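Exercise (ungraded).
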Amino acid sequence: GQQVMQIPQYQHVQEGEDFTTYCNSSTTLSNIQWYKQRPGGHPVFLIQLVKSGEVKKQKRLTFQFGEAKKNSSLHITATQTTDVGTYFCAGLGNTPLVFGKGTRLSVIA
Amino acid sequence: NAGVTQTPKFQVLKTGQSMTLQCAQDMNHEYMSWYRQDPGMGLRLIHYSVGAGITDQGEVPNGYNVSRSTTEDFPLRLLSAAPSQTSVYFCASSYDRLEKLFFGSGTQLSVL
């Protein structure tokens, strides 16, 4: 079945450093979604990418969808302590949404 | 709007007991789903429903039953709880299966 791999599993950064998490699917996706889960909380939707090569920005967050629609990335510029949490990508193909295992981001002030 | 409401928030069961996790949404969403979250495993789909009267299995359905008699409600039943079912359970809904998911606040379940 469809698998979504996400790396790294953990990332510790100093406040102000940049952060990137990568997502790869075993199959071509119709869209990819990104979610953020704060410690002790539930996942919250960030963005959805649909088009090949699409790039979307939300303030310090930049999301990309690969040309082959099999990979994606989330880049955070100049991390802040409010960015702490686990970031999940989730791919939608012929199966229901499949989540990656997430990247847990720690930000050291 | 309350969004997606899950009850209970915490539950402790003994092996072999049965229980139902409740999920309700007031957004008139057609698509509803149940996930379990275990450390280092991400979110794994248990069961999902694309509309009232329709349910289907996800990645890890064994030991769980669901039904969807109304658009609003999607309960998850544990038939005979096992320690391997200790996890955090999230219910999520969306307008349809292509759209973003709205998650409930989760149920932390421990099976002793």
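Further reading is listed at the end of the chapter. For now, observe: The mean pLDDT of chain B is 96. DSSP finds no helices and eleven strands in chain B.
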